[in-house]
């Protein structure tokens, strides 16, 4: 097994000192793991005290550890998300629960909420919020105003998920002062800081800790109100939306395992993780389209052919936007919002001829594998043709939503995001931006933080919709 020998390995602490230093300097990113994988091979060993962890970057390992239910999520890692600075956060949610039977029970309850009929019902909310987004962007499209596309996308996805999943009218996009978006922002910042094990003992960070705890309490309080109101409506025979919350409550009643704290855990998970990952995915895709005008032009042609002068996007339209789907998949290859996942080995395994002992934490990283030459030719080139129907498929090298039984239930929202991307690409020209102008910051998810400039242009279907051109013409920093 390969050992990290490029740095001093403490007999007691292993590689933790160097990792902690990188965390404090905001340098411990997926790119570091990529460097290790390219230098040391498909299985890289990392020591931390008496514990052994390995980074596995080979299809054989991905298939073994993700496709089989016998490898649970690592309770040490995912258990750390149970609370955030002492406040119950994700708890025992669908993402964090490690026991397979407990996870399967939750998944069984929630699967119907992500059916085709649910997605069709989501389109009305999506179209409404997409129209609101376009109106916001038109006001900024003067070619001079810098603004955060990520902030805009975060607010619109929060509005969509809030209304479609929980019946909440948040108005995050229209009201900058609404409390929930600000609370989520503070929580994401807190998650990033929580990677430093000494953060809670630093005198200068106590205000941040307090604000993070208050933000978590606010989200759980809002969630509790939603649950109580919806449960009362169901019990009184009132008509309730067939959304995620209704499905969870009805399934919970059938299972006769009423646990409001666990329901709140999943409320927080869908609300925070769902909107954050969707917003990041769409922002990176906008950035990539701005960098590659020839790709944007082809996407425009497809959208024109499929939608014509239609004002709204229908669910059936999404399946016809095949090239735009390829663009989204390529964006996820290079910029996956969630870069990887972890498993805990309960038995010894041999991967790629290398023996991995029992009780080892396994890191599986789609960001790393998606950028390796051995799996993708010219990996740093943005090329949607990699995902065309006739292109060779490098199996078990691409898993932005994970794979196997514990793949992300929320990936259905990625299908709907194709509709938002059509608004970016529908009838607009684009000028590129230099690669060195693109910045991303590793928070709890991969984020695109570069400010964008807008330039307005009249659509050929101006009678249908006056739209705005989103051009990442110039990025000036984080």
TrEMBL record:
Membrane topology recorded in Swiss-Prot or TrEMBL: Single-pass membrane protein
Gene that specifies this protein: LOC102075066
Name the enzyme group at the top EC level. oxidoreductase
Quote the PANTHER family the UniProt record gives: CHOLESTEROL 24-HYDROXYLASE (PTHR24293:SF1), CYTOCHROME P450 FAMILY 46 SUBFAMILY A (PTHR24293)
Similarity field:
Belongs to the cytochrome P450 family.
Q: What is this protein called?
A: Cholesterol 24-hydroxylase
Where does the record say this protein resides? Cell projection, Dendrite; Endoplasmic reticulum membrane; Microsome membrane; Postsynapse
Record-listed heme binding positions:
408
């Amino acid at each position: 097994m390969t050992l990290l020998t490029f740095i001093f390995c403490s007999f007691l602490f292993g590689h933790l000192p160097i990792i902690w230093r990188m965390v404090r300097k905001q340098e411990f990113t997926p790119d570091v793991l990529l460097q290790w994988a390219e230098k040391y091979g498909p299985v890289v060993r990392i020591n931390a005290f008496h514990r052994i962890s390995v980074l596995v970057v080979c299809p054989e390992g991905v298939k073994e550890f993700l496709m089989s239910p016998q490898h649970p999520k690592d309770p040490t890692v995912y258990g750390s998300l149970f609370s955030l600075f002492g406040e119950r956060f994700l708890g025992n949610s669908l993402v964090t629960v490690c026991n397979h039977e407990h996870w399967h029970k939750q998944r069984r309850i929630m699967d119907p909420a992500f059916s085709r009929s649910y997605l069709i019902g989501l389109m009305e909310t999506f179209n409404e919020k997409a129209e609101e987004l376009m109106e916001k962007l038109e006001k900024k499209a003067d070619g001079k105003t810098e603004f955060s596309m990520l902030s805009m996308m975060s607010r619109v996805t929060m509005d969509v998920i809030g209304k479609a999943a929980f019946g909440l009218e948040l108005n995050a996009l229209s009201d900058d002062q609404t409390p929930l978006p600000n609370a989520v922002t503070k929580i994401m910042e807190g998650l990033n800081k929580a990677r430093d094990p000494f953060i809670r003992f630093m005198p200068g960070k106590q205000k941040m800790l307090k604000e993070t705890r208050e933000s978590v309490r606010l989200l759980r309080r809002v969630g509790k109100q939603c649950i109580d109101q919806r449960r009362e409506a169901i019990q009184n025979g009132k008509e309730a939306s067939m959304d995620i919350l209704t499905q969870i409550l009805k399934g919970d009643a059938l299972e006769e395992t009423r646990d409001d704290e666990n329901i709140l855990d999943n409320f927080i998970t869908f609300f925070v993780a769902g909107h954050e990952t969707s917003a990041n995915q769409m922002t990176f895709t906008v950035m990539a389209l701005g960098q590659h005008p020839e790709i944007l032009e082809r996407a425009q042609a497809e959208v024109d052919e499929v939608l014509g002068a239609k004002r709204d996007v229908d669910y059936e339209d999404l399946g016809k936007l095949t090239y735009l789907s390829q663009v989204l998949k390529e964006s996820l290859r290079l910029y996956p919002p969630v870069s990887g996942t972890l498993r805990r080995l309960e038995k010894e395994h041999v991967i790629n001829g290398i023996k991995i002992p029992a009780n080892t934490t396994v890191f599986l990283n789609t960001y790393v594998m998606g950028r390796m030459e051995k799996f993708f030719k010219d990996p740093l080139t943005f090329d949607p043709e990699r995902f065309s129907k006739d292109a060779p498929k490098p199996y078990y090298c691409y898993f932005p939503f994970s794979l196997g039984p514990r793949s992300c239930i929320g990936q259905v929202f990625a299908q709907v995001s194709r509709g938002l991307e059509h608004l970016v690409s529908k009838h607009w020209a684009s000028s590129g931006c230099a690669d060195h102008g693109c910045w991303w910051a590793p928070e709890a998810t991969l984020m695109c933080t570069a400010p964008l400039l807008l330039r307005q242009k009249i659509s050929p279907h101006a009678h249908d919709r006056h739209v705005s051109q989103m051009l990442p013409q110039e990025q000036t920093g984080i």
